[in-house]
Amino acid sequence: MLDQADSLPDKRTVASRIEDLPIRVVSPKINILTRIQNIWVFRELLVSMVRKELRIKYKNSILGFVWSLLNPALYLVIYYIVFQKILKNQVPLFAIFLLCGLLVWNFFSNALSSATTTIINNAGIVKKVAFPREILALASVGAAFVFFLLQACVLVLALLIFQVVPAVNYLWLIPFSLLALVLFASALSVALSAINVYLRDTQHLLELVLLAWFWATPIVYPFQELGVRLSQKHLLWLYFLNPVTVIVLTFQRALYAILGDSQVQILPNYSPLWYALQLFIVIVVSIVLFVGALALFGRLEGNFAEEL
After folding, report:
1. What is the pLDDT of residues 109-138, one digit of tens each?
2. Are the beta carbons of 58 and 65 closer than 8 angstroms?
3. Helices 243-251 and 94-116 sit at what angle, rounded to 10 degrees?
4. I need a surface site. Which of 43, 70, 233, 283 has the fewest CB within 10 A?
5. Element (H, E) at 60
6. Between these two residues, 150 and 70, which has the higher pLDDT value?
7. Triad 308, 207, 48: Cα angle to 5°
8. Confidence at residue 2, expressed as pLDDT on a 0 to 100 scale
9. Each residue of 226-261: b (16+ CB within 10 Å) or e?
10. Contact status, residue 189 vs residue 141, Cβ threshold 8 Å
């Protein structure tokens, strides 16, 4: 009869078996600067994942990216007929006004909705391949930005058809507003993608939050309708706690460019420098949020494999 100790494998055998196992150790102690550097090093992977997001969305579709153009075009036609011709909305060219804000919102909401579930949807590669997982969330933002650019073509065409002349002295603010929008969306996307791995209700809660957020942003109604009331109570600052409000207002002021008259005030008559200052604040806050999101992601990603 063999001794019990003889039947146990030696330490060398156990060590060799462990080395053969497909185990990947993830360290959550990577500093923020290294995380940002890793994103840059894996930028080609980020571009590839953006392309993958685009291909998956319209896989086996005949029209493909044309569907991205049809969405805002249909909004434009419906709101022009309903609000301009039938309901006689007092906002001039309401369809153009709506589209300026709606493009911003579509990018923001699509980026957050897609990024929140991206870690779960890509559980297979998350558990088997070593790479900066933040790239998955950033790829969702990148894909949403491509769709934004496609839909912006509809807005440009509408401006030509309706002969709307943009405010030339405000157009230079558009690139800065896009930068603020991408940074803010990226910060929230990275944070939500990590949180949703542990709290799956996050993706469902986000739908409700985005619904309320949409109506808290001056997209379907002029800023002045609520802004004047808040200003009278010295609460206008509450309106600008919403970063998307500043970005939407910038798009409306630069592209729609109709202030209205004494009876129907649509946009605030702030100077370009005022908009620039507000966008600068949003950009700085978004950078801080992005750094915080990376730190949160680093604290949570260590147990992704077990949670998935």
Report:
1. 999 999 999 988 888 887 777 778 899 999
2. yes
3. 140
4. 233
5. none
6. 150
7. 55
8. 41
9. ebeeeeeeeeeeebeeebbbbbbbbbbbbbbbbeee
10. yes
